[in-house]
Amino acid sequence: KTGNRKLTFTVVDKNESSIWYYMQPSILKLVELTPDLASVAVTAEESLFAVDDTAQLQVSGLLSNDAAADLTVASIVYESSAPSVMSVDQNGVVNALQLGSATIKATVTMNGVVKEGSIDLRVISALDRIEMSLDQESIYVGGQAKATLLAYATDDTSFDLEGIPVTFTSSDPSVATVDSNGVVVGKSSGRTVIRVSVIFAGVEKSDSREMVVTVPPQTFVYDFSQIGLDGASGTPAGF
């Protein structure tokens, strides 16, 4: 804390005898230093956009003591690497103008310290369809399968769905469940439909696959040493 403190120093010589000294002046004023801005991050709710989409970027910072920085007292300057593809104003609002990719950089100045952060954004054609595949279409109870997604734009180019919210559901969770990463887990014998849906630019696209769950086959261990052998054939009696 700030204020006045009295400090006492101990000096130890070679023969380990101690002598007390008082610092002159005896009053030392301690000043609490303000942590510096250490890093900056730029985020957006989505990283994929359709033409004419807009979004508000968010900029956050960390101080040198790992506390969150109050950027309301900072100066932030935004810049787009491809203004013809994705523009950005000085309030951090981006506007998708044409197909392509752009990196949006935010330069933050706070108490004389300058830090930069950036985010990569992409403008694509309207979403035409999504296709889901399962690495296994039949699993045992307790087994797992993984869903893989591929999206296609209206110009038939494919792209991944990173940055776009994806929702998985199972028509019968008592047979198999599916998590947000597309991992299916068998729960009981039966059939269920795994469905995935995506909303992009206000349009929903979906796809589905049937999943069959069965009970694992039972394994029997038979001890033939307890069976008498047929004297003539040398085979277990009864076989």
Automatic annotation (TrEMBL):
Pfam families: Big_2. Coiled coil: none annotated. Residues 36-116, 126-210 form the BIG2 domain. InterPro entries: Big_2, Invasin/intimin_cell_adhesion. This is BIG2 domain-containing protein.
